[in-house]
Design brief:
globular, 7-stranded mixed beta sheet, alpha/beta, 2 domains, Rossmann fold, 7 strands
Length: about 300
């Protein structure tokens, strides 16, 4: 049913945080390869899986055919910022017979997406178009942004979303290149070359990593989507239900943290543990990609408790 090479990040912590109960519904708002959902199903839970990547949904339909036939899994091709409308649609269609007990967000981009030769996210495919859209229904690509945004706007994106210390220099170089030949900003290799020429190589991190991360976040409006989705998650879960977030980017984790603190201040529930959880040493040894993961849990106020 699943690809055994896939390692869902902080799996035990996520399941413990959700407090899985048999025959209750949970939303995996970032389905991906379905590793977290697989574990929820194995513990007897039922899953609504959302993903805005059509290829991911198509693959999931084949991998999880048994769960789909058993009606323990429902797949929805949608971004998690459409959480409320997706759940309402399922209820109206009588596919969902009860409320949601938990919502899981794994904000990390999947390895499949990062390594695809068609996304423009991998340095391994220099001839690939600078697309970076994780949802093909989006209209603007990374190349489009590079061709229209000012040096100031590009600098802010590279700094805010990537933490790029050479943001200003790289942004100015991009603007200079497009004056003479905008076509040079259309492929992965061309942008990598431009960045490398304006930034010294340090350590093991590829010189273009931070700029590519920033562009991906901007193209897919990732932080704004999280800001829209979290309140919807709180609204759809039952009192006593939980929301679990796994973030790999400082901006993502900060948004979850601030939102949970605000909800706690408003007496809408409480954080489970005041500090985020991180991967164990054993997980880091087995899956180095998990090193930047931070997991947070929020429990919605149970009206029965006074």
């Amino acid at each position: 049913m699943t690809n055994h090479a896939h390692q869902p990040v902080m799996l035990k912590e996520a399941l413990d945080g959700l407090q899985i109960m048999a025959n209750y519904w949970y939303v995996d708002a970032t389905f991906g390869r379905g590793g977290h959902s697989q574990a929820i199903l194995e513990q007897g839970g039922k899953v609504i899986g959302l993903d805005f990547d059509e290829q991911t949904i198509d693959l999931a339909r084949r991998r999880f055919s048994e769960a789909l036939e058993a009606n323990t899994l429902i797949l929805v091709h949608e971004n998690f910022d459409q959480l409320t409308s997706s759940v309402d649609s399922l209820k109206n269609s009588q596919l969902l017979d009860d409320q949601i007990w938990g919502v899981l967000f794994d904000f990390g981009t999947s390895t499949d997406q990062l390594m695809s030769d068609q996304r423009g996210l991998s340095f391994s495919y220099p001839e690939a178009k600078l697309d970076m859209r994780l949802d093909r229904r989006l209209g603007v690509t990374a190349a489009d942004l590079l061709k229209v945004l000012s040096a100031k706007q590009l600098t802010q994106i590279f700094q805010d979303y990537g933490g790029e210390e050479y943001a200003k220099k790289i942004a100015k170089a991009i603007v200079e290149v497009r004056k003479n030949n905008p076509a040079q900003l259309e492929t992965v290799g061309a942008l990598v070359e431009l960045i490398s020429a304006n930034k010294p190589r340090r350590g093991h991190l590829h010189s273009a990593t931070k700029v590519f991360q920033a562009l991906r976040i901007a193209v897919n409006d990732e932080l704004a989507n999280i800001g829209r989705a979290l309140p919807q998650a709180l609204a759809i879960i039952k009192p006593g239900g939980r929301i679990v977030t796994i973030a790999f980017h400082e901006g993502e984790d900060r948004l979850a943290k601030q939102t949970f603190i605000q909800w706690e201040t408003q007496s809408q529930g409480q954080r489970v543990g005041k500090k985020h959880l991180q991967p164990t040493k054993a997980e880091l040894d087995q899956n180095p990609r998990s090193r930047s993961a931070k997991l947070r849990i929020f429990e919605k106020k149970d009206e029965k408790i006074h």
